[in-house]
Amino acid sequence: MADTIQSLDQLSALKPAESEAPKHTKKVDKYGRAYATGKRKDAVARVWIKPGAGKILVNAREVDVYFARPVLRMMIQQPLVAAARAGQYDVVCTVAGGGLSGQAGAVRHGLSKALTHFEPELRGVLKKGGFLTRDSRVVERKKYGKAKARRSFQFSKR
């Protein structure tokens, strides 16, 4: 505390400490894959991506077999389409917990994070699309004295 400020002129002469934005670097393993974990509701997806022909495997099965509904397949493809990287990466993921919709959301979240690990410059595009944000909505717990979380038992006057 040797340098005490005596006047406002000295205060304005002080330079604020410049805080730089964090530099995002490429994070790949020894096999050239980027890894990320995605979550949605009760589902957790572990996702690995590497450059390839655009093949997507979910729990050792083709994406068309695992996610039969076209909406779920489209959901998984969204980060790749937004980043203009459709068909350029092979995706291998294992997903557990929850239902199919939650699992598709978890894979999408993990795939987005893995893309940012592989190509940090895609972070802005994916963040703008909302793919890097974990959807925190989960099922509300059941309360005592209630039929479900909020539903009351049927009222009877007599």
CATH topology name of the domain at 25-125, in short, is Ribosomal Protein S5, domain 2
Order of helices and strands: HEEEEHHEHH
Biggest sheet character: 5 strands, mixed
Structure classification: alpha+beta
Q: Can you give the mean pLDDT?
A: 91
Structural Rg: 24 Å
Uncertain stretches? none
What is the count of helical runs? 5
Q: Architecture of the domain at 25-125, according to CATH?
A: 2-Layer Sandwich
**Shape, per Cα inertia axes:** flat
Broad CATH class of the domain at 25-125? Alpha Beta
Strand-residue proportion: 15-25%
Total number of strands: 5
Give the CA-CA distance, first to last residue.
79 Å
Helicity, as a percent range:
25-40%
Strand order of the largest sheet: 1-2-5-3-4
